[in-house]
Amino acid sequence: MFPDCMMLSNKRRSVIILTILTLVLMTTGPISYEMRDGSVIMDLSKVTITETKSTNDVKILFIMDNDYGANYHFIRPILEGWGWEVTLTGTEMTIEPCDYQSSSATLDMDMLISEVSSLSDYDAISIMPGESHEGLLNSQAALDLIKSAADMGIVVSAWCKAVRVLAAAGVINGKNVSGHASFASEYIAAGANYIPGDVPPVIDGNIVTTVRSRFYRPDMCEAIARAIGVFEENAPDVTSVQLDPIELTTNDNSSLIVDILEESGVDQVVARFYAIDLGTGDRNSTEPYRTVMLENVSQAQYEACLEPFGEGNYTVDIFTQDIFGNSCNFTDVLAFVVRNSSDSGFMLLVLGSGAVIGVTLIIAAVTISNLIKRQKAGVYLVILPYV
Fold first, then answer.
1. Residue 179 φ/ψ region, left for φ over 0, alpha for ψ in the -120 to 50 degree band, beta for the rest
2. Pick from 54, 203, 239, 377: most CB atoms within 10 A?
């Protein structure tokens, strides 16, 4: 099988990463950071190495305030879709939404900030977008919690106007930050190097900031994941493909079983079936004969129940995508033949890497030639009727 791996082009991936190198590894020359599309967005003079952990183990504490922004409702599902555990905290147990939301969109906290007993339980804290954050700015307990988290090396992130809370907490001195331009003077007064304009999210050590929460939602979530050390860019790999049963007639239902190897989490596995012209060995059409979504039936196994196929020869492509949008298309992972249900007699031909193993079959030379032409890496099971 031949994978055609790619990154989804419709996701904006321009995340500025600025991190601090330990004293031993400090270099004097700039280090360029290359994005997935090949562009270099900034020269970096600081790099940090973070131990990678499983994305399913991540716990993040959302710090909320009254007049919270509507983007919260879109940020949380992204992170929970990655398997992260989200906890809400604030200075009050129930907070009010901003004016852009319905007045009924009040939000209940899981705990008060004063009740957060162990910051070490969390991999990151994130101050959600909102209008003014006056409640947090006037809460010494909130500012102390943010300062303690930053001092412990926990990833501390803030969205748009919330960056001013980081300034008040005293955690951005000497840091590169973005944030809403209305509070630029507060960032600078706190000792930060403010990066103006609608720049992508900025990572500087364990401090992550962004402007335009709505526009940069996926990028900011990715930036937080990168800072924690759980983001990865490898698409799910296909390790095994099986068709059950392997002998099919036009009356038979069947199952496609695919084993997947993935570090973070699988978002989707899709099978596309194409009819094959035995005369040319090519696909009859660029459009699939059938497309099915496979369901997760065990930790690494995906399965789809298939209705009967029409008589003919078929090949299968498998498309995989993980929770971070990394995807790959594996072509010609399986070839099979479906005979008319009125026919009888089967023999099994196993095609390996350049070799024919198994039984002797009397068949037209052109058919054998075309089957070998269709052969790809891996082992294919092909059912051929007696001639």
1. left
2. 203
